[in-house]
Amino acid sequence: MTIDVDRRIYPDSVISKAVYSLMGRYCIARRLAGDHFEQISVSGEAPHFTDELMQALNDFKLRQIIADETRDVKTILYAAAFGGDDSFSINDVHD
Questions:
Q1: What is the layout of strands, in order, in the sheet containing 27-32?
Q2: HSE (side-chain half, CA atoms, 13 Å) at 38
Q3: In tens digits, what is the pLDDT along the chain, a chain of 95 residues?
Q4: Which of 42, 46, 56, 66 has a 20 to 30 A CA-CA distance from 88?
Q5: DSSP assignment of the chain, as one string?
Q6: What does the alpha-carbon distance between residue 10 and residue 61 come to, in Å, rounded to a whole number?
Q7: What is the phi/psi pair of residue 43, to 5°?
Q8: How far apart are CA 77 and CA 59, in angstroms?
Q9: Quick count: other Cβ atoms within 10 Å of Cβ 53?
């Protein structure tokens, strides 16, 4: 069975994490298919693979969104905890 995954929606890091999370139960191969798609192939009987892969992709994509959106807050908390300077603010954070 082969599933095409759009890399514009799910970046490589998300696909890698999703595939790795399923490697204990399935034999999975990855192959680039053009500029925007990656083919994920599984060998053998895998009746629930598509559902599990989509759930893992969406889970890791959401985790990435949350990490991106909370990066500045984490930076401020780390700086406040270890910096010893109470004047640190969000304006001091640069990407």
A1: 2-6, 37-43, 27-32
A2: 18
A3: 999 999 999 999 999 999 999 999 999 999 999 999 999 999 988 999 999 999 999 999 999 999 999 988 888 888 888 876 666 566 666 54
A4: 66
A5: -EEEEETTTS-HHHHHHHHHHHTTT-EEEEEE-SSSEEEEEEES--TTHHHHHHHHHHHHHHHHHHHHHHHHHHHHHHHHHHH--TT--GGG---
A6: 7
A7: -100, 155
A8: 25
A9: 23
Q: Whole-prediction pTM value?
A: 0.77
Contact between 51 and 44 under an 8 Å Cβ cutoff? The reply is no
Q: Between the CA of residue 65 and those of 8, 17, 90, what are the distances in Å?
A: 14, 14, 19
